[in-house]
Amino acid sequence: MAAKNAVSVAFNGINGASSRVSTLRTLRIASQLNPIQASGPRRLPQTPFRSSVRYASSNAEGDKVAKTGLYDLHASNGAKFVPFGGYQMPVQYGDLSINDSHKWTRENASLFDVGHMVQHYFSGPGAQAFLESITPASLSTVEPFNSGLSALLHRETGGIVDDTIITRLPDKFYVVTNAGCREKDLAYFTAELESWRSNSANPAVEWEVLENQGLVALQGPKAAAVLEKVLDKESAGKLKSLYFGQSMYAHVSTSEAEILVSRGGYTGEDGFEVSIPSYATEAVTQFILESGKDEVRLAGLGARDTLRLEAGMCLYGHDLNDDTTPVEAALSWIIGKDRRAKGGFHGDSVILKQLKKKSEGGGVTRRRVGFIVEGSPAREGADIVDQAGEVVGKITSGCPSPTLKKNIAMGYIKDGLHKSGTEVGIIVRNKKRNAVVTKMPFVPSKYYKAA
Questions:
Q1: Which residues define the annotated binding site?
Q2: Hey, what domains does the chain have and what are their CATH numbers?
Q3: How many other CB atoms are there within 10 angstroms of residue 387's CB atom?
Q4: Which residue positions form the known binding site for substrate?
Q5: What percentage of the chain reaches a pLDDT higher than 90?
């Protein structure tokens, strides 16, 4: 998911390769993109369905892998599919290698299907207070049609249940969570709402999951120009004044459907995430592709993952999990200023202590950092060692960077060794490779922001 300096898959090479290597890449992606469900600090109850809380399981028929509303469109465009987050998702397309798709996104515009993500509405007089109790976000200071990255937190430990984007709309909050955490998140929201409602003093909260709602991400320097051609005249006129982290309701010129356009994304490029009613998802997506002609192409999970790693963004289940706090994950900036002063969110006693200086009894023992690695690329799980050969951390994501033509990685390292420029070793195939701690993002972000 996207944001400030927020969010790994590994590939065998930067440049084009034979079909055999391409197959190996696809298999590696499939295995790494299947989310790692770390065990949580506490067991979340499977609360029975309640009429005031509408949600469904990730798959309609047990363990059967589901399809997004754009599956047929992907198939007709030569997509190679992998199971991810309970869905058959395109990893790449026959007309472009993963590296070529990556490069296309950096230079033009790519359209990603992210309809597997879970979209929610929280409304009612207690919605803001409820969301502030389970996240460290300062929602009281967020204006309508503005959004930001946050995290769902475990009560006792402050560990990250999932990362999420929260948008304030005029009459409700729009929340997007990860597909791979669907069942865990639904159980979490159910349990937390049950606890909230058990206190009669708490104002009412209504929760709705937007099942089958479409969601696409249009990313790249030409994304705005492509989207302008698609929107009606009034909506297109508002696009230039829509900045990173802002949203608006809009209309496509060929449809009566109202869509929600949010400026942001997971690649580090300018772009938009567009939420579309299920009945119009395929038609709107096809219209974007036709309107963009030579400027926009479909892209899959393979390019999305190398792009997000270059942008320094986390992938839940790899770079974030139930046992990691926002402070350890270098996400302290998602904790609002007023929340630091007053607390009042899950895990606040742990997190606020971690924010303090070591001299005041605070700090953490490990931190998430980036690495440039010499020789072979470092993969998830590789040990990080200091100059004496002692293990001081683990790699959580790694790949050759198509943009930089260098091997990049992300991981957690012992506090004190986290400063940029620190030289370490990473064990790759039983051999120590030289690496240096590097600031993220690896590739400068190009978000469209106000001056």
A1: 273
A2: 1-363 (3.30.1360.120)
A3: 11
A4: 273
A5: 84
